[in-house]
Amino acid sequence: MSRIALILVCLALASPALAQQRLQVVTTTTDLRSLTEAVGGNRVAVTSLVPPNFDAEEYQPRPQDVLRLKDARLVVRVGLDYDLWLDRLLAQTGRPEIDRGGPAYVDASFAIAALELRGMSVGPGDGHAHGSGNPHYWLDPGNAEIVTGTIVEALARIDPAGASVYEANRAAFVAKLASKLAGWQARLAPLKAFPLVAYHNSWPYFARRFRLDFAGFIETKPGVPPSPSHLAGIIEMMRARGVRFVVREPHEPDRDVAFVASKAGATVVTLAASVGALPNAVDYISLFDANVDALTKASAAR
Ligand SMILES: [Zn+2]
Fold this sequence. Notes:
About 45% of the residues lie in helices and about 10% in strands. It is of the alpha/beta class. It starts with a helix and ends with a helix. It has a 4-stranded parallel beta sheet, with helices on both faces. Strands 6-5-7-8 form a 4-stranded parallel beta sheet, sandwiched between helices. The protein contains 10 helices and 8 strands. The site of zinc ion has 7 residues, from loops.
């Protein structure tokens, strides 16, 4: 065997071993996976429990999720009652270190200023989502700075040798995000004048950052499909306020969205509320690129 062939064989044998040495991180969502990858770089291997383009608020855990958690060195969740189903999985896993309060457990909503806060948390059994506040906080790029800070702290705690790498990765990511943000804000500025309607209220953090005005929602309450009287009220409001755009996420039912849009003469815009929900939203930064593209295209076509 030539020396080069021998080196190639050695590399092939070594790479699975290297992959094994990576810190196994499990996140509930694809957005947290992308943010963890951004700061963890090649020291981590990250799995998201909820597959792309699933509604994480309605997720039904699968048997393999418990197996994934058994191997996890770190668990990262959205919190704010968004992924309540994780608690049952963590209990089944029987590893206190990754359970609430454990050293390898990260609630990414820590230090986030939540919007639409309510006095009392409600469980998933009462038929609607958004218990203790609106949980879609990752849709403000400013909050990614806070979330990556929380993740870096946890990674450095369980892998102190990588601490400086995690800090450097985060600094580079935050700088890239800041430069992208200016462009996104400039491109969305013309939409400030036009109120929007969405199927589900995923958008208050996005709206605050980009100064958009979501005037109403097709769902009667978060997680509750619309009643005919609610739909009629939304259509009336859209006509009165001149709402031109209805935002839909790909997993949401098309029928009610199409009905409302046609009755009010509005355009349907499909946006991704999570990484992977649209084919071009492959990571955290391209999630915003995809949404800004979709909104500016729809606006230009009117
Ligand atoms: Zn929601």
